[in-house]
Amino acid sequence: MITISAPPYFPPQARAIQRQFSFASLSEAEKTAMRERSKGGQKQIEWLMEQTQAMAATYDDVNFTPPVLGTITARTLIIFGDIDPLYPVRLAFELRESIPRSSLWVVPNAGHGPVFGPNAVRFGETANAFLRGDWPRKGTT
Questions:
Q1: Is residue 46 domain-shared with residue 101, that is, in the same domain?
Q2: How many Cα atoms sit within 13 Å of 99 on the Cβ side?
Q3: What is the pLDDT of residue 59?
Q4: Alpha-carbon distance 91 to 28, whole Å?
Q5: Are 23 and 47 in contact (CB under 8 A)?
Q6: Alpha carbons 1 and 79: distance in angstroms, whole number
Q7: In a shared domain, residues 22 and 46
Q8: Which of 12, 65, 67, 72 stands 20 to 30 A from 35 (CA)?
Q9: What would the pLDDT profile of 31-88 be if each residue is shown by its tens digit?
Q10: Where residue 111 sits, what CATH number does that domain have?
Q11: Are 139 and 112 in contact (CB under 8 A)?
């Protein structure tokens, strides 16, 4: 299993951002990218915005305690950006401590969703190596 920017719970700073999140708050580049990815058009984009805002108010969706995380048996690669504005990197270390058979890749100078853009190729290489059982290799970060 590979998780990317997946927290065990939503910390206060994430909930604050989620409450304020809207299509209008995005940069033009982000809006364009979202339009290109959203095959369902504007209706899909509006639904995504509603879901993001709803996450700020719920506590029954993402709330994974260490005992629950400890029941995961799959080899797991946890990926976080070290400057994610939603989920501080300390959450990645909490996940790594709680999930047996887990590895952690903290992507330097990367925010939320650190596997896109300039990190996409390295993510593909790392994910493939992990799934083959070749990661982590000695000296990898």
A1: no
A2: 25
A3: 82
A4: 30
A5: no
A6: 11
A7: yes
A8: 12
A9: 998 899 899 999 999 999 999 888 888 887 788 999 999 999 999 999 999 999 999 9
A10: 3.40.50.1820
A11: no
Rg (Cα) of the chain, in Å, rounded?
16
Cis peptide before 136 (omega within 30 of 0): yes
Q: pLDDT by residue (tens digit) across 105-139?
A: 999 999 999 998 899 999 999 999 999 998 875 44
Q: Domain residues for 18?
A: 13-55
6 with 69, same domain: the answer is yes
Dist CA 76 CA 22 (whole Å): 32
pLDDT for 137: 59
Q: How far, in Å, are 28, 43, 51, 75, 90 from residue 87 at the CA level? A: 24, 28, 18, 22, 8
Q: For residue 58, give both structure tokens.
A: 């719920």
pTM of the model as a whole: 0.82
Domain presence at residue 76: yes
Neighbouring residues of 105: CB distance < 8 A, sequence distance ≥ 6: 77, 78, 79, 80, 126, 136, 140, 141
